[in-house]
Design goal:
Elements lengths: L21 E8 L8 E4 L6 E2 L3 E2 L3 E4 L1 H12 L6 E8 L3 E8 L21 H17 L9 E4 L3 H13 L14
Antiparallel strand pairs: 1-7, 1-8, 2-5, 3-4, 6-7
Length: 180
């Protein structure tokens, strides 16, 4: 007997090893895109922020956002993992996660207990991040899965790094925007 449930779209590249050395652009969204992680604060006209740029919005983390940042950065405790760039928006997080296989190029394996079981490192990093956040916060904050993009070359990396840096500026136009 077939069920009437829609088939879930595969979120990972088929046959791609998510433990290989490389950089990955990851987006993790809050459940129902609730704005729990930060507020985007637009400075008053004419004010100078940071390096002298005018009217650049700033990300002000909530308590939940600070917990998320702590556990995102704690991912670097996993051998070969570096959080290269990130931004914590009100209802999602963008990050570039760099993975470096060990000297023997042995693959580092993740977990088969993740919501989308795999023995690869990237899903393990994200699942561990979410699990620690949910435990400390005391409730489920993030959606079941995550979006990833394998960064192919330096130009791709530069484009994504720019996207992450400019995300607060484009917040009101973002497809993940929800009225705060």
């Amino acid at each position: 007997m077939e069920n009437d449930f829609p088939r879930r779209k595969a979120t990972r590249l088929k046959d791609f090893d998510y433990s290989t050395t490389g950089a990955y652009f990851v987006t993790v969204c809050t459940t129902n895109r609730r704005c729990l992680l930060s507020k985007i604060i637009a400075p008053t006209n004419g004010s100078i922020v940071g390096d002298g740029a005018l009217d650049v919005p700033q990300v002000k983390l909530t308590e939940i956002g600070r917990i998320a940042e702590k556990h995102l950065l704690a991912s670097e405790r996993i051998q070969g993992v570096r959080i290269d760039r990130y931004v914590i928006m009100p209802n999602h997080i963008h990050a570039i996660i760099a993975i470096k296989a060990d000297e023997n190029d042995e693959q580092v394996h993740g977990t088969s207990r993740a919501p989308s079981p795999t023995n690869k490192l990237l899903p393990h990093i994200v699942a561990t991040f979410k699990r620690f956040c949910h435990k400390e916060i005391g409730q489920v904050v993030f959606q079941r899965s995550f979006h990833d993009h394998v960064i192919r070359d330096y130009a791709d990396y530069d484009e994504i790094a720019k996207y992450i840096a400019e995300n607060p500026i484009r917040w009101r136009l973002d497809t993940l925007y929800a009225a705060e």
